[in-house]
Specification:
Largest sheet: 3 strands, mixed
Helix content: over 70%
Mean pLDDT: 81
Oligomer: single chain
CATH architecture: Up-down Bundle
Strand content: under 5%
Number of domains: 1
Order of helices and strands: EHHEHHHEHHHHH
Number of helices: 10
CATH topology: Rhopdopsin 7-helix transmembrane proteins
Strand order of the largest sheet: 2-1-3
Length: about 325
């Protein structure tokens, strides 16, 4: 993936320097504290959800399996960027090697592609559970879930590998200062000594196709879900279905709206949107969903909430017995 760039007279820099958030250097300390708190919350929350689902055999339905994978992807996504961001904001150490920069870029973009695929799979799960409840287990078989997971992963690899190859093979013979707090694609592409338009255009078009198709299918599934919910005779059943779907829609809004805004602002905003706003939007897009996903799903999903409370009480009770 990270081959040697094609021949040019100047050497490719061995190290890039990430500046953090240009224009907000005076706020870096507070940003570091905030990011650290969000990162710890993300790690604890997602790890707790994964532990509860792994240990409780009653939580083996497809929805919980997708939620388990989503929590794992959130940990990978946050861990790929936040530790370096905190290091930049705390100490100003923004150096990152050429290969590490492109590895980070690959992980970030591949993980976001996997996450949008998982949100689509979870929307399909809710559609089957509410609109075809009698056929739920017959439709969402382990084989179908495995096929969906493989398709989501393969799609991410197919999208990201050409993009990483195109960008890593550009000549970087000028400035090595990246005006960003992580190796965001467009920010790095601007440093190339050749025209970065092909890779940038590929990124925007590819992201638009992936997100656009996923959002279209998600919207269609929830339209059918709402139609089915309105037809339920029980008011409690309607409220339960709407509550479950509402939390899912909230998570998707947190993910898609800042994500697409970040992509198009970086592509089209330029002089219209201040650089620090662009960078801050891109940072929050990668940090907020991993932080809030476990809180929303943990608090809004009754089974996970009950199992989490039982697990915590069990650990505390056992610890107190050992201490006495």
């Amino acid at each position: 993936m990270l081959g040697i760039p094609y021949n040019h007279t100047m050497e490719t820099p061995a190290t890039f320097f990430l500046v953090g958030i240009p224009g907000l250097q005076s706020s870096h300390l507070w940003l570091a504290i905030s990011l650290s708190a969000m990162y710890i919350t993300s790690l604890l929350g997602n790890t707790l959800i994964m532990t509860v689902i792994w240990m409780d055999f009653t939580l083996q339905e497809p929805m919980y399996c997708f939620l388990y994978v989503l929590a794992a992807v959130d940990i990978v996504l946050a861990s790929s960027v936040v530790p370096k961001m905190v290091s930049i904001f705390f100490s100003g150490d923004g150096s990152i090697s050429f290969n590490a920069c492109f590895t980070q870029m690959y992980i970030v973009h591949a993980a976001t592609s996997v996450e949008t695929g998982l949100l689509l799979a979870m929307a399909f799960d809710r559609y089957v559970a509410i609109c075809k409840p009698l056929h739920y287990k017959r439709i969402l078989t382990p084989q179908l879930m495995l096929a969906m997971s493989m398709a989501i992963t393969i799609r991410a690899v197919i999208f990201m590998t050409p993009l990483s190859w195109m960008l890593s093979h550009l000549p970087f013979c000028g400035s090595n200062v990246v005006l960003h707090s992580y190796c965001e694609h467009i920010a790095v592409a601007k440093l190339a000594c050749a025209d970065p338009m092909p890779s940038s255009l590929y990124s925007v078009i590819g992201s638009s196709i992936i997100v656009g198709s996923d959002v279209a299918f998600i919207a269609a599934s929830y339209q059918l879900i709402l139609r089915a919910v309105c037809g339920l005779s029980s008011k409690n059943a309607q409220l339960k279905a709407l509550s479950t779907c509402g939390s899912h829609v909230g998570v998707m809004a947190l993910y898609y709206l800042p994500g697409m805004a970040s992509i198009y602002v970086a592509w089209l905003g330029k002089a219209m949107v201040p650089l620090h706003t662009q960078v801050l939007l891109a940072d929050l897009y990668l940090v907020i969903p991993p932080t809030l996903n476990p809180i929303i799903y943990g608090l809004r999903t009754k089974q996970i909430r009950k199992r989490t409370w039982s697990l915590l009480m069990h650990c505390l009770f056992d610890h107190s017995k050992l201490g006495s």
